[in-house]
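Need tokens for this chain, all 270 residues.
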Amino acid sequence: MTVGEALRGAAEELRRTGADSPRLDAELILAHVLGCSRLALYTRAGRELSAGERAAARALLRRRARREPLAYVLGEWGFRSLTLRTDARALVPRPETEELVGRALALIAAVERPRVADVGTGSGAIALALAAERPDAEVVATDCSPAAVALARENAARLRLAVDVREASLLDGVEGPLDLVVSNPPYVLPGEPLAPELAFEPPGALIDAGQTEALARAARERLDGVLVVEVHAARARAVAGLLARLGYTDVAITRDLAGKERIVEGRWTR
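Here are the structure tokens for all 270 residues:
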């Protein structure tokens, strides 16, 4: 079987199973197995796959055909300028969260040596991106999941980024004052229909059980700066109202690139 034949067959199989981007997924799987770029697949279209390559591609394809997230299948995923290790210990880093990081960076652009906390860090994506793009920042990351903390620490060590990753609930044990608290808390509404891929992700990191409100309350004890959170697009106005009622000022909503109200911020001044 040639590379081109394998690519066509994989894309067709993923199309039958309902994957959103079957051709792209097939390209990424084969490129991962062959250790090359997606473009290189087409320059090697006539090359015969070895038995080992066919077996490796087939194993990954079966996982994706079951609708396991592609990031878990590949074991790594791009997030802004970073490549993160990814598996079922934490949520898959998403493009919307890259926009959250962009907003967070804008909020601390004028702050020298900012002190930042990422709450519910998961894979460490937010904290590590902030540390990479603001090397002068002091960044602490917390998560109540020991498995997620282990993954975030693995990513920090692999990327050689100085992020203090702690197993903690919200901001427990984190000293203030903080210039920024940033979070992508669980915001899928209970009972909301889920894409098949989400069944593979940790439910505790997905389902909204009041974590956003709990964080907004707790952050007031540590902040002398801004709280910025990613939210459900249908609940941005409600979260903005919550921050205003809790005494935050300069409350604002930022739309994502798709035009959805996705990021909410508010300032807390001691």
